[in-house]
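Input record (Table S2, row 576):
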Amino acid sequence: MRNEEIATRFSEIADMLDILGEDTFRSLSYQRAARQLESLTENVEDLVREGRVDQIPGIGRALAEKITEYVTTGRIPYYDELRAKFPPGVLDLLKVRGLGPKKVKVLWQELGITDLDTLKAAAEKHLLRRVKGFGEKTEENILRAIELVKEGEARTFLADAARIVDGITERMKAGKTVERIEAAGSFRRMRETVGDVDILAVAKDRAAAGAAFERLPGVVEVLASGETKVVVRLEYHDYEGSRRTIQVDLRILDPDSWGAGLQYFTGSKDHNIRLRTMAERRGLKMNEYGVFRDEKRIAGDTEESMYSTLELAWIPPEMREDQGEIDLAATGRLPELVELPDIRGDFHVHTNATDGTEPLEAMVEAARRRGYAFVGISDHSVSATVAGGMTAEQALSRRDRVRALNRESKDFTVLLGTECDILDGGEMDYPDDVLKELDFVIASVHSRFTLPEETQTARIVAAVQNPHVNILGHPTTRQIGWRGPIQLDLDDVFKACAKAGTAIEIDADPRRMDLNSTQARAAKNAGCTISVDTDSHASGNLVWMRFGVGTARRAWLTAAEVLNAWPLEKIRDFLR
Ligand code: DGT
Ligand code: CA
Ligand code: CA
Ligand code: ZN
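Output record (zinc ion complex):
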């Protein structure tokens, strides 16, 4: 948690320096330090205790001192000094697409715009176009971008929810006020974003458990505080470092109703309504306390008991969306869903050769430490200029390095690939004789997002039909809270992929989750093979596989349908 807190402060310092227009060199060093801290696998508090802070790559003496200050006193005076120069909402303006530090400074100092709300009001009143560099079109774009920021803020990315849930459950367990604690709700169903976090617990001393919950770090407000339910608002930093808040509900259950509560509060609502109707038809009553015949409880201590009373197999939480799963459970036809331990590797991994932050060897080592059998390195191709794409020569020049790594170890394989841009008409960014030299090819759209559906679909279908292309990367290119999907006939794309033997990706970057679960299920039904990848740009991102697999489970995928759950030999056949 400390690593992230400091990273967030450092990146805010960089933002503030940028807005003030002072010392770009210093701002860059804070930005770089923030990224280092985010991807640091060790706990920064340990490094301070052992006097090893200056060993963090990219962190010089001045920044090491600030880290030590923060860990020992909880404050960075330099940060407080800068912060005092800004109205609280000004930094939020940077979240609006199209607004960089220079524009924010002008808006703030010339128009007195100090937060998103005043920005929105000014754009609606057409005040912005009076300022140099802003026009009618900019006003429209800014209004739309504010909406997207607000949409994005309303829900929390699954990966961030997981860190919140893990933090809460660990602390509550360590405090020993609860005998049992687990997250339910949309988090347990692994939705790509969650509205609020629902935590269930069993406690002998309910008041003590409730009090411990209210005192959790990050709690900024207690909204309700009762015997069975406590509700708080918690502040957190999202995976990109922005400060946000989320509501967390704690429900304290009776041990006899644990399974009933877990079932009820996991939802979804539609799934629960259907179960309750089934119970009623059998003359039973079903609620968050159990299943009852007359006044007698006949199930409720375990979740299995809730389902078995209705003659249903236990249904994995990710499937509980009333999409036909209850029929399958009634007839013993539930699929055996892919699980995290089934995953043998990750195909979508960037290095500092393009826009990743770590060298190839570091990413390989991190993948190996996850227990994988292989990792696919897929840096950007030359046309991806914003991502520092590599020329064909640069891409091929890494073959020796990879061969050396593969000679060193028998139980781990590095596959050298590319995330190759799909060009305007569906051609690939590298010529075929370059693509054929690489172990695999992910084809992705990074440009021309606004093509009409027919043209866009034809472009992507052409790309997946290229015999060297193995995986279609982040197929819709949507980014939650930022950019909608491209116009695409996904059914045509799925058909083309299935026919050409090209896999299609679930990109588990928290903001992408692309394909989403619904689309991935459609792809499965069309006969596609799915590759679940993290699109990692730092070794810390490899953990996102958990959420990609969660999404795959929501899509009802089995291990047989997931490319990177296959044995390496079978994967090699597929790539050939
Ligand atoms: P979220 O928080 O918007 O991402 O979605 P959920 O599914 O976590 O929804 P939430 O937090 O409102 O409630 C958690 C679960 O509790 C929900 O999935 C099902 C159950 N639940 C809540 N209210 C009702 C209700 O009125 N009827 C039924 N049957 N179930 C409910
Ligand atoms: Ca919830
Ligand atoms: Ca809730
Ligand atoms: Zn990409």
